[in-house]
Amino acid sequence: NAGVMQNPRHLVRRRGQEARLRCSPMKGHSHVYWYRQLPEEGLKFMVYLQKENIIDESGMPKERFSAEFPKEGPSILRIQQVVRGDSAAYFCASSPRLGVGDTEAFFGQGTRLTVV
Amino acid sequence: AQKITQTQPGMFVQEKEAVTLDCTYDTSDQSYGLFWYKQPSSGEMIFLIYQGSYDEQNATEGRYSLNFQKARKSANLVISASQLGDSAMYFCAFAMNTGFQKLVFGTGTRLLVSP
Predict the structure, then answer these.
(1) Residue A39: C-alpha distances to residues A6, A76, A89 (Å)
(2) Closest by alpha carbon to B92, among B43, B29, B60, B45?
(3) Is the Cβ of A89 closer than 8 Å to some Cβ of chain B?
(4) Mean pLDDT over all residues of chain A?
(5) Is A33 on the interface with B (CB under 8 A)?
């Protein structure tokens, strides 16, 4: 059973371009979470999605950032018109159900976005 | 809002010795979970151990144990018999048991294990 898969692992974008980060949850998982880690900091929650629904986007910047988790395919975190401050590691996690427990604790390997 | 505090920016330990990494949290909720993650220099987040607020026993996973003191709101990670490969950043995280896993992370502790 493959873990949470994120791609690309590394992404370089020029200022003003769009960045698309993909997350394929573990098989059977219908809940996806995105986190951002700025350099030398801990992870910060961005958004929680279920299939075709955004449940909690309280951590998402108000502009330029969007997320989706379609019925088919991976979850996508999209950053439009990237700026240098968007440079960070973006992590995805998935879970099979609601609730908190050790089975819902696994992250993908992250996508490191560098804006030049 | 929940808050997680890791007061040790860096810790040093000699190989084969035990080390305790501190974590305190602030919440008025009764039902929650506490997590520890390891982040090596390669950058991935590796889940180590989980403690539920209603668990009566301290969690253990191999060389990792969680010293859970609910009244003091602390959830310290104990690594026994340190190995060179334990050198990494360690993050404590909190989640309310509200129905989904919205983790709040501490700022991390950098552990360096010396030979």
Answers:
(1) 19, 22, 8
(2) B45
(3) yes
(4) 91
(5) yes
CA A5/CA A71 separation, integer angstroms = 17
B103 in contact with A at a CB cutoff of 8 Å? Answer: yes
Q: What is the pLDDT of residues A29-85, one digit of tens each?
A: 888 999 999 988 889 999 999 989 999 999 999 999 999 999 999 999 999 999 999
| Residue B40 and residue B88 in contact, taking contact as beta carbons nearer than 8 Å | yes
Residue B28 to residue A15: CA distance in whole angstroms: 43
Condensed to tens digits (0 to 9), the pLDDT of residues B70-100 reads 999 999 999 999 999 999 999 999 988 765 6
Residue B46: burial class (beta carbons within 10 Å; 0-12, 13-18, 19+): middle
Burial grade of B72 (CB within 10 A; 0-12, 13-18, 19 or more): exposed
